[in-house]
């Protein structure tokens, strides 16, 4: 489990992460979204103990992270720029990780070669960007750590490899309660992977949601009432947004399909369509009119 309270981390008088709280439950996957410069890498490096926080508390499994080698053995941080020894082969990197991680699983390391299909004898400095990422994930999964901190690991991977990596993460979460925090610029990239998603903007968490709640609970309702009912008020629903398209009203409503259907059914509408929203739409409505530049994350 990862717990962060009141975390502030800055560079030369400028705070890249500001008074941030975050919890990632054991056995869950947290998606950290944010546009360029939002503070994702700063947050993740502080979680991984590479940076010392200026203020606040960062705990992994209840223990402070910074300058705590015992905690670092229980986590793997896979950076957007890998700190590999460039002249090492993949096999030599495996040996290096084996010395660092007590739970290192050599059998798994060998077996995962069939997934990543990169020769053990290849040197790190001869790999492409995407292959480099793959090797990071391969080593990270073989380390069998309790926590994985992944900074844009899917960037540069082709769609088949993305799917494979997601499946491997799912498997570890399900089988051994791996805890994962993973960053990305793109909601769509994370929506089928994460249990929770948070959007970081200018160092602050502007929205955090449970993905299951988001997916099942918000609907777009298009309706037109008959002349005789036009003035009746529709109450008892949590309406996030209202607009009119010609004679049809379009409302965004939080609530189950059934509850919405029941409530509108009482009005005997001439038109009633209850549609699920895409996740991007849900986030946009949830964010309301707040002036955040989230388009890059949501509208791809
Ligand atoms: N070493 C550093 N020294 C000074 N400023 C830094 C340093 N690292 C990051 N910053 C600044 O902190 C802010 C947050 O950067 P960070 O790398 O954490 O964002 P990010 O969300 O990971 O961005 P990206 O998606 O572009 O990788 C940016 O304004 C960046 O310029």
From TrEMBL:
Alphabetical UniProt keywords? ATP-binding, Nucleotide-binding, Transport
Its transmembrane ranges are none
Q: Name one Pfam family in it.
A: ABC_tran
Superkingdom, taxonomy of origin: Bacteria
Ranges for domain ABC transporter come to: 2-227
A single Gene Ontology MF term assigned here is: ATP hydrolysis activity
| This protein's name | ABC transporter ATP-binding protein
């Amino acid at each position: 489990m990862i717990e962060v309270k009141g975390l502030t981390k800055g560079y030369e008088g400028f705070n890249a992460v500001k008074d941030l709280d975050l919890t990632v439950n054991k056995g869950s996957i947290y998606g950290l979204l944010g546009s360029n410069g939002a503070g994702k890498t700063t947050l993740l490096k502080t979680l991984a103990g590479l940076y010392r926080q200026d203020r606040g508390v960062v705990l992994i499994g209840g223990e402070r992270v910074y300058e705590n080698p015992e905690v670092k053995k229980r986590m793997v941080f896979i950076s957007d720029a890998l700190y590999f020894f460039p002249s090492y082969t993949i096999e030599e990197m495996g040996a290096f990780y084996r010395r660092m991680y007590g739970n290192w699983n050599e059998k798994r390391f060998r077996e995962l070669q069939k997934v990543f299909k990169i020769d053990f004898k290849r040197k790190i400095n001869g790999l492409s960007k995407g292959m480099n990422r793959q090797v990071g994930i391969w080593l990270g999964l073989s380390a069998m750590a309790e926590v994985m901190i992944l900074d844009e690991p899917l960037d540069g991977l082709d769609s088949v490899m993305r799917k494979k990596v997601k499946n491997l993460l799912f498997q570890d979460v399900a089988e051994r309660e791996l805890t994962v925090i993973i960053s990305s610029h793109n909601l769509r990239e994370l929506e089928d992977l994460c249990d929770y998603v948070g959007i970081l903007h200018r160092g602050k968490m502007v929205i955090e949601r449970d993905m299951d709640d988001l997916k099942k609970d918000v609907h777009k309702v298009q309706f037109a009432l008959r002349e005789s009912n036009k003035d009746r008020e529709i109450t008892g629903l949590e309406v996030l947004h209202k607009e009119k398209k010609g004679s049809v009203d379009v409302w965004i409503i939080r609530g189950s399909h059934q509850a919405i259907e029941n409530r509108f059914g009482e009005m005997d509408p001439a038109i009633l369509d209850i549609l699920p929203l895409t996740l991007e739409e849900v986030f946009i409505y949830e964010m309301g009119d707040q002036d955040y530049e989230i388009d890059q994350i949501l509208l791809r």
